[in-house]
Amino acid sequence: MARDPSTLRYAETHEWVDVQEEGGDKFATIGISAFAVEQLNDLVYMDLPEVGRTLEVGEEFGEVESVKAVSPLYSPVAGEVVAVHTDLPDNLDNLNDDAFDFGWILKVKLSADLPETLMDFAAYQKQCSEAG
Questions:
Q1: N6-lipoyllysine occurs at which residues?
Q2: Structural domain boundaries of the chain?
């Protein structure tokens, strides 16, 4: 099932969040937005966290490197990493075509509600248009 960008929540730092409930627990799938991928251009490396790591909101969990810059990746949610997309670092070109489905980075079992600072799609688009 294709992920609809208009239904996701977004951090100011360009990570997207898709929350699903499974067996009474809430899980957040996290990736970086198509806007971020476009701005970084020519991705060459991505560092992923380990399964089992506990993340806090705003904590750096990895980085993505392009020919232009190295950018940290920040957790938009609090919880335990339960899965990482291990195929992603070897297929970064696919992020250009599919930042929202193939481009997921990690899945986190939430330990708290989503932060109120996460934006809906309209607010995120406004932020991106203002950033140019």
A1: 68
A2: 7-116
- The CATH number, out of the four listed (2.170.150.40, 2.120.10.30, 1.20.1300.10, 2.40.50.100), of the domain defined by the range 7-116: 2.40.50.100
Model-level pTM?
A: 0.94
Read off the pLDDT of residues 66-110 as tens digits, 9 standing for 90 and up.
Answer: 998 899 999 999 999 999 999 999 999 888 888 998 889 999 999
Rounded to whole angstroms, the Cα distance separating 78 from 110 reads: 6
DSSP, residue by residue, 105-124: EEEEEESSPPPTT-B-HHHH
Cα 30 → chain centroid: 4
Q: Is the dihedral of CA 17, 19, 22, 25 positive or negative?
A: positive
